[in-house]
């Protein structure tokens, strides 16, 4: 089977359990949970039994170990994760605003992950993996961005495929040079997985159909738009496929897009039709929101089959 690789941040996430605007007042928190968008993505790939690996860097501490233990338990090859002595694993605090949107406070740039360099183990993964998944958050931190760019060049040169999820948080949009870095990744993408409005970041088009048509014309192979509790859509040269959201009880939306992407890429690489990949990805996104904690809702194939009503007996 083909092997999926991602490059990017590993961190722990600590989540507020009450809604509010600022971080000025003490509030009840839950966590730490293993996290980092690329880590959530690759954990979902691993849980589905697809060969998976991540290039990253953590501190030699409990937060780093929490992540490595989880990823390894779910079948992810963590040989490309450097454990840096005397450095710390990053963290993110999440708070839900009264309107349900999220405020993130990131502590990544000065963490072990922010000083990522390619190690011999990382180099070996670039030679052995078939597909690379890159996320916008990785491009917002300078050390990570350099390794991500190198990884794209190497995987593409070997004939591998690339998927790209901009995953842009309001908090990282101000990063200098980010826009150009995103455009460069998009230009090499076989599969583009924006959520909602992110499709408009890369074109002048003012409606979705025009934006999609322009990106396909520019050479993006397939586009999958994530629409939260409104489902998702797939576009390629043959046309459009929509999928309705599955009914689930949402307790924590964080991680839905990453699990959706992990499932889509797993099925896509294994040769499933766009319709099938979309159906499973939609189910993985729905499953993800049913658990508190970003990675806690990553699903196995059996869980997705059950959610899709495909379980026998
Ligand atoms: P995040 O950045 O928080 O991981 P995202 O914005 O990238 O998320 P979403 O669009 O929120 O991604 O969710 C991805 C997919 O998961 C949706 O397209 C949908 O298929 C599924 N999904 C998300 N939320 C729900 C929900 N409440 N009910 C059913 N399906 C959902």
Spell out the blueprint of helices and strands:
Elements: E1 4-7, E2 11-19, E3 29-35, H1 37-47, E4 52-59, H2 62-73, E5 76-77, E6 81-84, E7 90-96, E8 102-107, H3 120-128, E9 131-135, H4 136-139, H5 142-157, E10 161-165, H6 178-187, E11 191-192, H7 208-217, E12 222-226, E13 232-236, E14 239-243, H8 256-269, H9 274-288, H10 301-307
Parallel strand pairs: 1-4, 1-9, 2-7, 4-5, 4-6, 9-10, 10-11, 11-12
Antiparallel strand pairs: 2-3, 7-8, 12-13, 13-14
Bound molecules: adenosine-5'-triphosphate.
Adenosine-5'-triphosphate is lined by residues 167, 195, 226-229, 231-232, 245-246, 248, 250, 253-258, 260, 282, 285-286, 289.
Identify the notable features of this structure and list them briefly.
313 residues, UDP-N-acetylmuramoyl-L-alanine:D-glutamate ligase, 24% strand, 14 strands, alpha/beta, four-stranded mixed beta sheet, single chain
Return the string of H and E elements.
EEEHEHEEEEHEHHEHEHEEEHHH
Which strand-content bin applies to the residues? 15-25%
Q: Characterize the main sheet.
A: 10 strands, mixed
The number of helices is 10
Which regions contain 5 or more consecutive residues with pLDDT less than 50?
Answer: none
Radius of gyration: 18 Å
CATH topology (fold) name: UDP-N-acetylmuramoyl-L-alanine:D-glutamate ligase
Helix fraction by DSSP (H/I, runs of at least 4)? 25-40%
Q: Please write the CATH class name.
A: Alpha Beta
The secondary-structure class comes to: alpha/beta
Q: What overall geometry do the principal axes of the alpha carbons give?
A: globular
What is the arithmetic mean of pLDDT?
93
CATH superfamily: Ribokinase
Count of distinct strands: 14
Q: How many structural domains can be distinguished in the coordinates? A: 1
In whole angstroms, how far apart are the ends?
29 Å
Q: Which small-molecule ligands are present, each listed once? A: adenosine-5'-triphosphate
CATH-derived architecture: 3-Layer(aba) Sandwich
């Amino acid at each position: 089977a083909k092997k999926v690789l991602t490059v990017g941040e590993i961190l722990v996430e600590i989540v507020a359990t009450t809604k509010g605007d600022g971080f000025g007042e003490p509030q009840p928190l839950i966590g730490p949970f293993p996290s980092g968008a690329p880590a959530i993505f690759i954990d979902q790939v691993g849980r589905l039994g697809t060969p998976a690996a991540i290039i990253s860097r953590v501190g030699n501490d409990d937060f780093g170990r929490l992540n490595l233990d989880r990823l390894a338990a779910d079948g992810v090859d963590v040989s490309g994760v450097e454990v840096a002595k005397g450095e710390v694993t990053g963290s993110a605090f999440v708070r839900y605003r009264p309107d349900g949107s999220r405020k993130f406070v990131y502590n990544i740039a000065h963490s072990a992950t922010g000083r990522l360099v390619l190690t011999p183990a990382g180099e070996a993964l670039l030679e052995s993996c078939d597909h690379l998944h890159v996320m916008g958050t990785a491009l917002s931190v300078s050390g990570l961005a350099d390794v991500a760019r190198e990884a794209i060049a190497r995987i593409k040169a070997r004939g591998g495929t690339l998927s790209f999820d901009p995953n842009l948080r309001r908090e990282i949009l101000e990063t200098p040079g980010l826009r150009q870095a995103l455009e460069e990744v998009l230009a090499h993408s076989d599969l583009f997985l924006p959520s909602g409005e992110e499709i408009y970041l890369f074109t002048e088009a003012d409606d979705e159909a025009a934006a999609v048509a322009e990106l396909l014309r520019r050479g993006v192979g397939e586009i999958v738009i994530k629409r939260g509790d409104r489902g998702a859509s797939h576009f390629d040269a043959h046309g459009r496929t929509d999928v309705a959201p599955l009914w689930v009880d949402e307790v924590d939306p964080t991680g839905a897009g990453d699990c959706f992407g992990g499932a889509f890429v797993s099925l896509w690489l294994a040769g499933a039709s766009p319709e099938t990949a979309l159906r499973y990805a939609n189910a993985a996104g729905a499953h993800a929101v049913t658990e508190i904690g970003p990675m806690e809702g990553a699903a196995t194939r059996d869980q997705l089959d059950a959610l899709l009503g495909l379980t026998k007996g």
